[in-house]
Amino acid sequence: MSEISIAVRAATIVDAEGLSRLAAATFALGCPADTDPKHLDEFIATELKPERFREFLADRAVTILLAETEGELAGFTMLVSECAHPQIAAERPIELRKFYVGPAHHGRGVAQALMRAAAPQFDKHDVAWLSVFSGNERAIAFYKKWGFEVVGTHYFNVGGDPQKDFVMRREGRKE
Predict the structure, then answer these.
(1) Domain CATH code at residue 22
(2) How far apart are CA 2 and CA 62, in angstroms?
(3) 110 vs 33: CA distance, rounded Å
(4) What pLDDT does residue 117 have?
(5) Given 37, 88, 121, 143, which is the most exposed site by the fewest CB atoms within 10 A?
(6) pLDDT by position in tens, the chain (length 175)
(7) Range of the domain at 105
(8) What is the sign of the dihedral through the CA atoms of 21, 26, 31 and 37?
(9) Each residue of 98-109: b (16+ CB within 10 Å) or e?
(10) Which residues pair with 161 in a beta bridge?
């Protein structure tokens, strides 16, 4: 595959529609294959709508980084500062809450570019953590390459369907 140019920048309120469309188009890829479509539709309709992204973008604790290639939104990640998890002992945690790359951009360096842009934020906190579907081997392997390790499990509710996720953490910089 030919090399592409990837630009990563902070999202703004005008990006809410595009973020919503990309999230809706990619969310199911991180879920079990047998997830009931009505549960996926319910989750997408409530949690990934443009209004939710406008709320996220208005929240000072939230940073959304987006990756563009050839003028097209290729992926994004959401970081939430001071977001605690009961299984993560931390004084200043940061959550990597969403990490989506459009299928057409898989294997093209978009995920790496997003993580390179997000990683400096991890070192401003004592712990970075995330939740990922326990059967999403590709994502788990990717996060492990970036220093995350599985430390527990919890259930993530997708439109009324509880799905087993791994909780992963990465140490930040000690100050």
Answers:
(1) 3.40.630.30
(2) 34
(3) 24
(4) 96
(5) 37
(6) 456 899 999 999 999 999 999 999 988 777 777 788 888 888 888 888 999 999 999 999 999 999 999 889 999 999 999 888 878 888 899 999 999 999 889 888 999 999 999 999 998 999 999 999 888 899 999 999 999 999 998 787 777 777 788 999 998 765 5
(7) 7-171
(8) positive
(9) bbbbbeebeebb
(10) 158
**Residue 62 in contact with residue 79, Cβ under 8 Å?**
yes
In order, the DSSP letters of 50-99 are HHHHHHHHH-TTEEEEEEEETTEEEEEEEEEET---TT---SSEEEEEEE
Residues 6+ apart with CB under 8 A from 33: none
The one-letter amino acid at 121:
Q
β-strand 149-158 against 72-81: which pairing, if any? unpaired
Of 69, 153, 168, residue with least CA distance to 111: 69
Count the domains in the chain. Answer: 1
The structure tokens 């995350």 sit at 148
Q: What are phi and psi of 36, to 5 degrees?
A: -60, 125
Please provide the size of the chain in residues. Answer: 175
Residue 1 belongs to a domain:
no
Quote the pTM value.
0.89
Task: Determine, yes or no, domain membership for 107.
Answer: yes
| pLDDT computed for residue 3 by the predictor | 61
Greatest pairwise CA separation for the chain in angstroms: 47
Strand pairing of 161-171 and 149-158?
antiparallel
